[in-house]
């Protein structure tokens, strides 16, 4: 049995090396209420210029249909950095489109603070263009008034 298992694992890796792909499931999602409960428990705040959470209004901050790994990534960042963390952008309309977009649940925006900026720029690797990459592959992009963060994974949760 052990030999068959090892042979199957080797065959899978060989197929991947030769260009085969492994099907991946759609990311697990949270409702707005589920996400805010997770954030609140971790001591992470959120705000919006419209003081609202309607996903279809660009001046709101919504977490409806956000990836669970995105919320876990924000929690990991807060725990690792020790910084106060405020999210100003989630899955609401008004952001750029694309596969790894806010709307699709991969991105959040962090408020600027010296603690957050110093942690990102001193801990992660600069990849040019005001972007830093964490060891787990997540991207932190310094825009004019916030950090635009793409979570491909939970950042070592």
UniProtKB/TrEMBL annotation:
Residues 1-25 form the signal peptide. Keywords: Signal. It comes from the Bacteria. This is Peptidase M15. It comes from Lentzea flava.
